[in-house]
């Protein structure tokens, strides 16, 4: 292309619909602006679509938007067992059951298998909450109460849980075999109620060991508790 042709091309005018004169450089800038607007519009549509999908997932999807949540309880080890259950794919009900059973080992003088409880289960997808009342049921004379702790947790697992019942009980069995930490609260409870305790010789022997232990010492849980938890893991509240 010779110089005359180049000069003719670069000096050629382009006219807009209103008759105003435009240069080729002006058209190039306009094309870039149009492309930029198209990119921005695409990004906006993509973000809106992504937000819509996220909202749908929150409302209809899994109960958990992260691999696992967190658990708080009276004992660090029990809380960790609950977190482990969430990591295994269990839901909040499974974690609560595992943690409660663990507390019945670490705090057996405050939260034993012969206790009671109430559990509130809320489904964020439906906005509906349900209450499981497993407080003690009393006989006609209103003196003897039948503990509902295990029956209530078992019912919660069947109705709302994901993981098998045995999986939720096993951490407590392992902890009971490994040993629990002697706390000031446990020693105080034993010393204050020694005269009221049952005549079971094995239990008396265990209580004697604990009462003569120092704070922070690890003591294996009573054999009766380990056996009971094992039966519960296999047969639920029936225990046999």
From TrEMBL:
User: Does this UniProt record's set of keywords contain Mitochondrion?
Assistant: no
Recorded GO cellular component terms are: plasma membrane
- Transmembrane stretches in the record are 34-56
Output the Pfam families linked to this UniProt entry: G_glu_transpept
Q: Please, one GO biological process term?
A: glutathione catabolic process
The record, for SUPFAM superfamilies, names:
N-terminal nucleophile aminohydrolases (Ntn hydrolases)
Which positions bind L-glutamate?
Answer: 135
GO molecular function (one):
transferase activity
Q: What is the top-level taxon of the source organism?
A: Eukaryota
Q: What is this protein called?
A: Gamma-glutamyltransferase 7
Its encoding gene is what?
Answer: Ggt7
